[in-house]
From TrEMBL:
Name of the protein: Protein DltD
Organism annotation: Staphylococcus carnosus (strain TM300)
Superkingdom of origin: Bacteria
InterPro entries: DltD, LTA_DltD
Residue spans crossing the bilayer: 7-29
Keyword line: Cell membrane, Membrane, Transmembrane, Transmembrane helix
Pathway where this protein functions: Cell wall biogenesis; lipoteichoic acid biosynthesis
Family indicated by similarity: Belongs to the DltD family.
A GO term from the CC aspect: plasma membrane
Pfam families noted in UniProt: DltD
GO biological process, one term: lipoteichoic acid biosynthetic process
Length: 384
């Protein structure tokens, strides 16, 4: 080989590998996501779990082992009563599989689940609804850009059994966001009453995204939020014993204030590092209600067995910052009504917004609140 070409050899090799990678079919890579991948990602809360179809595809094909729990930032809090930690082979027939992070509101979760539409019939799922989602503005463009997956949107519109009416509703809603990818496809879908022509992304792009997702699923460099958290109750503890321990745990970790807010978070409030003004929350006319209805209608039409869980906020703290019960209760009631009117069943916890140790800060379920949920979802798992 010429001495002049030798320094460029690594570049040639890298280029050749890249070209081979681009040309290989995605089917060569999808086998990388297997049962072991599911076990390793049960509580990883990575983008590969939330935004990539492969892991959720596999999850719904092995649903007898796992119980998917969709939600938002409450899932990643280091709480020993989180169902991924507290539930075990002695008190639960399945393992919890967590899917969610901060900003995963109704539309984000709706697209995730709708992308699995054809596999949802009869599948048991929990979906946690947070009342602070129901703001003046609803899902923002920033959160849309960060949370929404082109691959999942594409897969959603390719679900064979999903009605044209639902596809039209999703197309119209997605068009409201500034940086949505293929506006022409969405406009045509909306105009043609949900009948799709072509794909949201090209076959080539779908092929590349799928391969990248498969490879990334094997290389999780993100620290798992719950990996260091250990159970604080014995494996054979009853639900009443777990509630007692959770109460004691909450009391021990919230000694600094009268609102039963965990001490670490209270320090941030006192240091003005957490927001005090939440006047934009609890809007009875929030666009979030339409997104919740779209999700609930999708699950009902798909035949999924969803346990909706409506959680409260810390009522004592919200009273203190000027958002009183008279403003909160109509929103709680409308969340409940929206789910039920769409054929869903709901575990409504909003009557517990003044109960100590149900909420660990201003808005996040935890401690005793998680134990209530743990017991309820195990009942749902066993329910025929």
């Amino acid at each position: 080989m010429s001495k002049k070409l030798k320094p460029f050899l690594p570049i040639f090799i890298s280029g050749a590998i890249f070209i081979i990678f681009v040309l290989l079919p995605s089917s060569w890579f999808t086998g990388l996501v297997n049962k072991k991948t599911l076990a390793e990602n049960r509580m990883s809360l990575t983008d590969q779990v939330m935004k990539g179809p492969l892991i959720q595809d596999k999850l719904f094909h092995h649903n007898k082992q796992y119980y998917p729990i969709y939600g938002s930032s409450e899932l990643e809090k280091d709480d020993p009563f989180n169902p991924a930690i507290a539930l075990n082979k002695h008190n639960s027939p399945r393992q919890a599989f967590l899917i969610g992070t901060g900003g995963n509101t109704d539309l984000v979760n709706g697209v995730e689940l709708a992308s699995q539409y054809d596999d949802l019939k009869g599948k048991k799922i929990a979906f946690i609804i947070s009342p602070q989602w129901f703001t003046n503005h609803g899902l923002t463009n920033v959160n849309f850009d960060a949370r929404m997956s082109q691959n999942q949107i594409n897969q959603m519109f390719n679900q064979k059994n999903m009605s044209d009416e639902l596809k039209q509703r999703y197309a119209k809603r997605l068009l409201q966001f500034k940086n949505v990818h293929n506006k022409e496809f969405l406009r045509e879908t909306a105009k043609n009453q949900g009948k799709t022509d072509g794909n949201y992304i090209s076959g080539f792009k779908e092929n590349q995204l799928t391969k990248i997702e498969a490879i990334k699923s094997l290389m999780n460099f993100k620290k798992v939020p719950l990996e260091h958290v250990k159970p604080v109750t014995s494996e054979d503890a009853s639900w009443s014993e777990m509630r007692d321990v959770a109460t004691q745990y909450g009391e021990a970790h919230s000694k600094s204030n009268q609102y039963h807010i965990r001490d670490k978070y209270w320090k941030l409030i006192k240091a003005h590092k957490r927001r005090m003004n939440r006047d934009y929350e609890f809007n009875i006319n929030s666009p979030e209600f339409a997104d919740l209805k779209l999700l609930a209608d999708t699950m009902h039409e798909a035949g999924a067995d969803v346990e909706y869980i409506s959680i409260p906020v810390n009522g004592k703290w919200y009273d203190n910052i000027g958002i009183d019960k008279d403003k909160r209760q109509p929103v709680y009631d409308k969340i409940h009504r929206t789910v039920v009117d769409s054929g869903g069943k709901i575990y409504d916890m909003t009557d517990k917004d003044y109960e100590p140790y149900v909420i660990t800060d201003a808005v996040h379920i935890g401690w005793k609140g998680w134990v209530y949920i743990d017991e309820h979802i195990v009942y749902h798992m066993k329910e025929k």
